[in-house]
Amino acid sequence: MPRPSESTPLIGVIPPYVLDRLAQHADQRVSMPAVKTLILDQQQRGLRELAEPPARARLTEPRPRATAGTPQRAVHDAENSTTLPGRLVRAEGAPASRDAAVDEAYAHLGATYKLFWDIYQRDSIDGSGLPLVGSVHYGEDYDNAFWNGAQMVFGDGDGEVFNRFTVAVDIIGHELTHGVIDTEAALAYQGQSGALNESLCDVFGALVKQYALGQKAREADWLVGQGLFLPKVQARALRSMAEPGSAYDDPVLGKDPQPAHMNAYVDTPRDNGGVHINSGIPNRAFHLAATALDGPAWAVAGRIWYDTLCDKRLPHDADFSAFARLTIDIARTHHGAAAHKAVAAAWAAVGVPT
Asked: Which among 276, 287, 335, 340 is annotated as catalytic?
């Protein structure tokens, strides 16, 4: 069962400070979609607040079970409206459609399910076979994708800065992990616990991507959201877990503001206390631990982070130090000296006291 949450409803993989900057751009082809996205995101926050108890009930109520290990996907077309879920286009087992967004959403929902089932024996987002529902073509030129507590929603992007939001498998893995966190730890979406919330989503989004590609930790690019930005934008991705602060530096977007160490931690009232900014610190800690251990990142480092997320000792308002101490304890207790050394060294390298 989820623990009680004091979290602010989660909306969107694109941080609000990025959309704010785009909204101020002189070119209306960039500014107007950003403004409309900010308005829709605010409306969705209000709806999520009103619907929070029913949404949580849907994650935990008994339901007819499909065979464990088999996802139950349904991808809908919102047809540029904001009515959800929209028209069903592809149900589980149906052949590919002629719509790239539908087929990408279907494939990437499946890739996320596959990582959690194959590696962590978790049957969908809630651990009990929750159907994975997605809606594509949400709104007009909508510059975001989000998990609303019951389903995934994807915009098409503005065609100027952003590509369609189904293009990156790790973005879908990221947003679905918010549902896993809701079920397990209900990390408060504010300050350091909120940054941990965002970081865990980046971690498991990256692992979905690496597992789908069959990559070892040292082979991976550790970029989150590669392909989201169109080629004219000076950006490698939305975030870099290996080098926080280096993902983009563009006249329109500005420079990636993520710190890589606690000595650059950003104290700000915006973005729920910098949840998308300061997540760079625990992101880099995971990258350092995973690459120190070599092999696939999902095997040892990923298991430690997953077990920490599911550990009942993790408070819903955990700060970086509380999370780090628990990862170190789990590494030492269950994974041996090499894992213990790698995890402890990773947190020390980013300045998190343990």
From this structure: 276
